[in-house]
Fold this sequence. Notes:
This protein has 229 residues and is of the alpha/beta class.
Amino acid sequence: MAGQKRITSWVQTEIGTDEEWERAYKAFETPEEEIAKFKKRLISLGAADWPRDADVVELFCGRGNGLVVLEECGFTSVEGVDLSKALLKEYSGNAKLYAGDCRTLQFQDMSKDIVLVQGGLHHLPILPEDLEKVLLEVQRILKPGGRFIFVEPWQTPFLAAVHYACSISVLTSCWPKLKALHDMIEGEKETYFRWLGQKKMVVAMLDKYFLQEKKDARFGKLFYIGVSR
Ligand SMILES: C[S@@+](CC[C@H](N)C(=O)[O-])C[C@H]1O[C@@H](n2cnc3c(N)ncnc32)[C@H](O)[C@@H]1O
């Protein structure tokens, strides 16, 4: 199977995601759509200026389409971590993969230039404790001057409108993408809404560990770049 041999396991037992959620996640976007979205996103985050030999790791990388984009952009040292081996196995490319928990990373101290997260922090089950564990790990593995970059759902008027649309069954029944989004949110609702409800805590914790370079909330997402304190 593609990529299988390159997965280093940090966990004893194989952990998968919820099947229903995974089905909705895949129905929401094709890999091609996801790759196009990630490419636009990385460019908007300034990826054109990052050195191509930077040590980059994407946490919560899922099926690895973010890694595909990093490689397509010319980055030569790319790694990915996710709890789900099933999703990691869908990736085929040259990045090194680790099946593990992002709350306890096994990377060396000060070994990465860029730590990237695209939609993973809102899956953490215990807030604020789990977020603090991840941020401490990110801080530990970043080289001095290294950057923590993430994109996560964020409560904005746009997102409130999307949630409202998801609640209207006539809309979800005639728009498959909206139905997939509805199902995905349903599958992760506990952590998702807990995350969305704790904006102040999230910002305070980011400020505790990182010097903010960018913090933009748009279209229901927070785009964040911080440098280790
Ligand atoms: C919404 S998906 C995002 C995947 C990918 N970044 C993307 O945008 O397509 C969230 C991912 O986080 C992973 N995950 C959840 N909790 C995790 C943890 N504690 N450590 C590592 N990965 C985790 C799940 O397996 C899932 O692949």
